């Protein structure tokens, strides 16, 4: 049939998928799942095997797609994993109306003045397609559709199961919903999962990086937060209290881009922590200082234990507390020479959320704490998980005002476990074969990386931690077990070798996001070769 097996048809398919504005949590996410279903349903294989193509409803009304292709009596099956949601388009500014029209956007960008040299170089060679989702990851979805077409023609020595999910860019709710579906499909089709091959694009590791990567794992992610709870006062008497924003600013200064948190493995190094949210918690303007503030960070992991990271964050918070104490005291001392008053150095206490919870329990009892938690959770059912988490921690701190000023370390969802198959014999053999194939057939030097640093749903294909090792994280995540759940036992059951191989792109999550068209067909052949090697090994 060969609908998506050459560069022109693949490029057209990518454009078709990009034109569906499947922003996470917006209605077009559902439309995207249905579009993929009807696109695949046009293949003859699914006319004869309609039950092999399914849309699985999620509790929130969204859908994930699975497309199975059986080849003879084989049990061995390779999972092709992708996500079809994209991030929002606010960064496009006055080009927002073209964000999902890749051909027109590419033409428009070519006309813009004062572009960076690297961008100009890509525009001049005419082999790049711009638009939201071109790189992350509609091209990967298109390539997997072409693999389903190959599988339907009997190309592979085993079975293929394509899984494409929504919400990867927010909470990975799609992948978490896919885990029980995968277990159910394994029983339904009497198959075994040989490996999971993700199709995320190759991410640059540093500015100007032009390497094409193959990954044998994916990094983990924590979202540590610090509630900075000071003491209220009138702005006319600033030394009578302690500003939460001052404390949060010092936490951010110390943790932002802190290389002490960069794990290394061989020539790989994960990016340092980056702030994702910082704000005070006043809900209206007044001349009372904002005595409570919060700051949240993206923190990546490879092989450190949670206990180690938790202690490292606590040490940093205690150092930040000492810095704020000294700063405040020095300013108060200097001001006392202008307006005489007794200067006192503040003492800032550092707690984990669990420690603060135990203080509140001792002071107010479980019934009152539960009542307040239930009120917050029931009153804000549609509020972002990060905001609800902050509200719960702040409310608990308000019950323990006598311990203020304080900094409280907590964790918010989502949590992405680190996963790696760097010691798996199958993955090491196949990755070596694929690297050699790419070099000999296309003169592409694939560089193998142990961990994909861009975050991916591969994190939920297995669980490399014992549940007890997760306690420092889960015990300090206020919404865990209430609004946020992880199917830890199912994840453990699902464990299989993992790889990631996808197209070349640049500037994911930027208005200059783009896909390298010149390597699209080569990547297709590399993915097809990888699947064959996984199944025949």
TrEMBL record:
* Entry's Gene Ontology molecular function annotations: hydrolase activity
Name the Gene3D superfamilies on file. Answer: Zn peptidases
Q: Record's superkingdom?
A: Bacteria
Looking up InterPro entries in the UniProt record yields: Peptidase_M20 (IPR002933), Peptidase_M20A (IPR050072), Uncharacterised_RocB (IPR012166)
Family matches, as SUPFAM superfamilies: Zn-dependent exopeptidases (SSF53187)
The entry's protein name is Arginine utilization protein RocB
**Pfam families tied to this protein:** Peptidase_M20 (PF01546)
